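name: query_chain
kind: protein
chains: 1
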Amino acid sequence: MFSVYLIIGIFAGLMSGLFGIGGGIIVIPALSAIFLYHGLVPHESIMHMAVGTSLAVLVITSLSAMYAHHKHQAVRWDVVINMLPGLCIGATLGAVVAHLLPSNGLREIFSVFLIIMGMRLIMQAKQIESSGSLPSKRSMTIVSVLMGILASILGVGGGIIMVPYFLHCGLRMLEATGTSIACGLSIGLVASLSFMVIGLLAKTHIPWSTGYIYWPAFFGVAAASVFLAPLGALLAHKLPVRLLRRLFGVFLLVIAIDMMAV
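structure:
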C-alpha cells in the first residue's frame, strides 16, 4: 500500500511544480478511491480524510516547489504578504464548512469546481484579460479570504483559483504560478491544522490518523512529491506560456470526470 502512496506522490509533485496547484487535484481523488476500495475510512469521512491529508501534504510540496520558483525570481512576495491574513482566516473557515458538509457533497463540489475552472482556462488559453495592475489591499484581502475558504474546502491549495486571478492582475504566467504556490503554503499549514483539530473534536477515531489526517498516506505521498516538485517547476520554466495554460485547463477537466465516476 505504501508503494501506491509513493506513486500518487510522484504525480502530485510534478503537478505541484508545473501548475502551482499543490497536487491536491491528484491526491484527493486517488486517496478517496483507496479509502473506499480498502475500507480504511468510514464512508461518511472519506472525503474529509482525503482533503485533510491532501492539505497536510500540500505544506511539504509547497515548500519544495516554492523554493524552486523563488530561485527563478518567480514569486511576488509583496502579493503574498498582502494576501496572507485573509488566506489564513479563509482557510480556517473553510475547514469548518468542510466538516459540516457530507462526504458526497464535498465530492460533488470538488468535481463541479474543477470543470468550471478547467473550461475557463481553456477558453481563455490564448489571452486572459489583464487589469494591468494589482487591486487595492482591501480588495486583495476580501479576495484572499474567499480563496482561502474555497481552497480549504477543496484541499487544492488555491492555485486553481489564484493563477487565473493573478494573471488578471497583470502577473506573468510563471509569476502567477510561483506566487500561488507561496500563498498555498499558508493555506495548507492553517487548513491542515484546522482539519486535524476539528477531526479530533468530532472524535473521529480512525487507526493511523489524527483528526482528518491519515498519516500512512501523508508520509508516502509527501516523501515522493517533495522530490518531484522541483522537476515540475523546471518544466514550467521550459514550456511555452500558451501551452502551459491549455495543459492546466485540460488537466482539470480530466480530473473532474474521474471524480464524478467514483
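note: The radius of gyration is 17 Å.
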